[in-house]
Amino acid sequence: MNDWWKQFLTGVLGTAIGVGLTFAVSNWVDNHKKNQAQRQTAMMAVYDIDEIVRLMKEDSQEEDLVFPILTHLVAHPERLDKISQDTLRMAVFYLIDDPASEPRWINDSKEKAFSSGMEAWQNLENFQFYDNVQECYRLRRELYRTIEKDAVFQRPISYGRINQYIGQVDSDELDSDGSFSAKGLKRILSETIQMPTTTRYLRMYPLRSSFFSRYIDEIDRLNKENKFLMSITDNEMTSYVRKNIQKTRPASAKLLAGTWENQMNDVTLVYKFRTDHSMDLTLSRIDRINLTIDDMDVQVRVPYSYRMSGTWKLDRDSLRISASPLRPKSFHWRWT
Questions:
Q1: 289 in the same domain as 173
Q2: How far apart are the two ends of the chain, measured CA to CA in Å?
Q3: What whole-number distance in Å separates Cα of residue 171 and Cα of residue 180?
Q4: Which run of H or E residues covers position 229?
Q5: 271 with 260: CB under 8 angstroms?
Q6: Domain termination site, one of 222, 248, 274
Q7: Ramachandran class of 258: left when φ > 0, alpha when ψ lies in -120 to 50, beta otherwise
Q8: Whose CA is closest to 330, among 300, 295, 306?
Q9: Shortest CA distance to 193 belongs to which of 116, 330, 277, 79?
Q10: Is 330 inside a domain boundary?
């Protein structure tokens, strides 16, 4: 009888220990996977914020490059003839207010992915990391709202004014491909650089530069603190980029060369990429307008196309396009 009880208790104890070990191992594996997932999400956010800082710096540096050119032309408009066509086009771009364009650093897909895991992050003991990341993204949104609404960032040439220029150009103010020639660009600049709005915009440059610097420095500081809080090393970040960023971007000039079409609502976009990194972009749509002809109301379909030329390049995980919108619109009339 005693032997039977010993065997029974030994079996029960062994089973209990086995079950306990199974649950312990299972919990350890689950926790390890959860921690790994959280760390991957943390790495994603840190990398994304590093990219935001990099792109903000590039935007600020681009203005630093063009600003002295414009100030020189304002002071010496007679020297327009000595400026190259590429520099003239860059100066015109600097002054155009394009409401449809957005800074490259405003993409919030990674922010949404990070915020969707809020419940998991709240279980961490290190709340400071989560708060820092959210603050970085908040500062990014705040800067974007300021750029959209503050007069300091309002550029002097509206798209409406560009359309007026397009309707008034002479034949020798266009190149053979339909873009503005050096003469056309000089006319735009000669009429623009003396406008009060241009003078005001240039005088506001130190404010814009200081504004950008403050946001860039604060976001950069917070993200460096993030790396310290999560003990993320440079080697770890390099490994993350190699495995998660570079792996998803196998594109090359050879692979991208050709014609690509994209449909956005009622607008068709056709991209033509060349291996020498030049490109054309054509935007097409069909509008309808009502006309009265010989006392008869008719509706006319107006196929509308807008072409741009420029350059492209691969920049880490992004395709960067620099295209000039300075081409005439072409209209073709058809009866419905």
A1: no
A2: 102
A3: 10
A4: helix 205-229
A5: yes
A6: 248
A7: left
A8: 306
A9: 79
A10: yes
pTM: 0.66
Residue 35: which region, alpha, beta or left (left: phi > 0; alpha: psi -120 to 50)?
A: alpha
Here the tokens at position 298 are 């008719």
DSSP letters of 55-80? HHHHHHHHHHHHHHHHHHHHH-GGGG
The three-class DSSP label of residue 277 is coil
How far apart CA 56 and CA 106 sit, in angstroms, is 10
DSSP code of residue 241: I
Residues with Cβ within 8 Å of residue 58, at least 6 apart in sequence: none
Tell me the CB-side half-sphere exposure of residue 200, using CA atoms within 13 A.
Answer: 10
Which H helix or E strand runs over 192? Answer: helix 182-192
Highest-confidence range of 212-216, 274-278, 299-303, by mean pLDDT? 212-216
d(CA 253, CA 128) in angstroms, rounded, equals 42
Kindly state the helix (H) or strand (E) to which residue 145 belongs, with its residue range. Answer: helix 127-149
Last residue of a domain, one of 229, 248, 267: 248
Q: What is the DSSP letter of 311?
A: E
Which DSSP category does 230 fall into? T
Q: Give 225-262 pLDDT, tens digit per residue.
A: 999 988 888 888 888 888 877 655 455 666 777 787 77
Taking residue 193's Cβ as centre, other Cβ atoms within 10 Å add up to 20
Give yes or no: residues 149 and 283 share one domain.
no
Q: List the structure tokens of 20.
A: 């306990």
Angle at 244 between CA 123 and CA 30, to 5 degrees: 35
pLDDT digits over 126-155, tens only? 788 989 999 999 999 999 999 988 989 999
**Structure tokens, 244:** 């998660």
My answer on whether 54 and 166 are in the same domain is: yes
